[in-house]
Amino acid sequence: MDLSLVLALVAVASSVLFLLVTRARQPWQRGKLPPGSLGLPVIGQSLGLLRAMHANTAERWIQDRVDRYGPVSKLSLFGAPTVLLTGPAANKFVFFNGTLAMQQPRSVRMILGERSILDLMGPDHKRIRGALLEFLKPDMLRLYVGKIEGEVRRHLDESWAGRRTVTVLPLMKRLTFDIISLLLFGLERGAVRDALAADFKHVLDGLWAVPVDLPFTAFRRSLKCSASARRVVTGITRETKAKLERGESSRSSGLIACLLRMTDDSGARLLSEDEIVDTAMVSLVAGHDTSSILLTFLIRQLASDPDTLAAMVQEHEEVAKSKGDGDALTWEDLAKMKFTWRAAQEILRMVPPVFGSFRRATQDIEFDGYVIPKGWQVFWTAAATHMDGRIFPEPAKFNPSRFEKQSAAPPCSFVAFGGGPRICVGMEFARAETLVMMHYLLRRFRWKLCWMENTFVRDPAPTPLHDLPIQLEDKAASP
User: How many Å apart are CA 364 and CA 209, to the nearest integer?
Assistant: First the structure.
């Protein structure tokens, strides 16, 4: 158990005990609460969930609650009374209900900023989301394929070629960080990008830590590295603004330029500097961490799945044959990689990078005959539908053919990218990044797992055993 977690629980217990008891009693006067127990004050069921995630039994932990209480139950997580909702109907309720606000852990808000898209609602959320959609619209994504390809090829030349073993997860994290920082900021290789990458490695360490600023904790280190990264991002924002004013940069040169160029009808800038910096910080995390996990687990799957590997290699060889020697990949080429993306979706179903998320009820609301009191958290998890055998038969079996048809599962069942008005704006970007990387990786290398144990932990993101070391063979060097 993380020492900071224990210390934090002790530190806050006395201050919130009365609040929790009060919250627990009042709703009985409003309606029928879901079955379940809030458990011990402050602690609730938090430690049990964290232990299950670390032991990779979180899906079983959720299913045990469903078996005991049904698809709707109450509990206490991270110091707040919570309602767990499971199933496609529950997911739809969470994604499309305007009275449920995003509820990020306090640690996330302190590290990534208070004005990020993760916490905004209403017109503020619409403004920021609109800016991101402008940056990630299809016409813009077409322009990014070449930049992604350049980073991928350089990465494989420098970090894979000529090596007998590599450790996949940290390499994927660095690749996806390099790609997103280039597209966000136009930040080329060099000392600034290296320093920002080093900061973000530690920023991520504390996103789900207990937000108590004590020496030698992951949270303290994350706060320090976040402050350092924000100074860099602020500097880039101001430099980009100056370039735009001098006509030395364009709207399409990166997300920062795109955000700075957004104005209202009167010509006033839509976003403040703080909003731009917060948006960039969240985009850096979302744009590289989840993609790196997807790529890592896809590589792990292919090492022990020769049929899928052969089908995927064939698909990419056919794409390569349709092009001239040395021709760059295009958006149209990516559209031909259908089997690869189906395999990636199946990885996202089985190992979603984000286990679940929280909302907060802004007023008393009802679902399935139960009241969810104002101020309570709502917790949903991808595993509740992803691993439901009634929705996805034999859910533990890797089967990309599940995604041959768009309507293969009920709406709001496959929720790796969320859903509703807050569905991930970077879905198509993640697809492009994954397909370009797999195209060059599959055509250049073969690999084997160094460790045959097929295990991983969630901390809170899924991490394979020893970060997935593999034995590598360069196809060009093979007889």
Answer: 29
Give the separation between CA 256 and CA 138, rounded to whole angstroms.
18
Q: Comparing C-alpha atoms, which of 293, 289, 286 is closest to residue 255?
A: 286
Taking the domains of the chain in order of start, what are their residue ranges? 3-477
Retrieve residue 358's tokens. Answer: 């929280």
**Both structure tokens of 418:** 């969320």
Q: How many CB atoms lie within 10 A of CB 201?
A: 14
pLDDT 10s per residue in the chain (479 long)?
A: 443 444 344 444 434 443 444 444 454 445 699 999 998 877 788 889 888 988 889 999 999 999 999 999 999 987 789 999 999 999 999 999 989 988 777 777 888 887 777 777 777 778 778 878 877 888 888 888 999 999 999 999 999 999 999 999 999 999 999 998 888 778 888 888 898 888 888 887 777 666 777 888 878 888 999 999 999 999 989 998 898 888 877 766 678 888 888 777 777 777 788 888 888 888 888 878 889 999 999 999 999 999 999 999 999 999 999 988 778 999 999 999 999 999 999 999 999 998 888 999 999 999 999 999 999 999 999 999 999 999 999 999 999 999 987 666 788 999 999 988 888 888 899 999 999 999 999 999 999 999 877 778 887 789 998 999 999 999 877 65
Helix boundaries (H) for 160-272: 168-185, 191-205, 218-246, 255-261
Rounded CA separation 276/278 (Å): 6
* Other Cβ atoms closer than 10 A to 63: 16
Half-sphere exposure of 138 (CA within 13 A, CB side): 4
| b/e per residue 442-458 (b: at least 16 CB within 10 A) | bebbbbebeeeeeebeb
Q: What is the CATH number of domain 3-477?
A: 1.10.630.10
How many other C-beta atoms are found inside a 10 Å radius of the C-beta of residue 411? 13
The answer to whether 183 touches 254, Cβ cutoff 8 Å, is yes
187/235 Cα distance (integer angstroms): 12
**pTM reported for the whole predicted model:** 0.87
Sign of CA dihedral 307, 310, 313, 314: negative
CA distance 76 to 45: 6
CA distance 286 to 184: 12
412 is in an annotated binding site: no
CA atoms of 454 and 50, how far apart (whole Å)? 21
Distance CA 420, CA 415 (A): 10
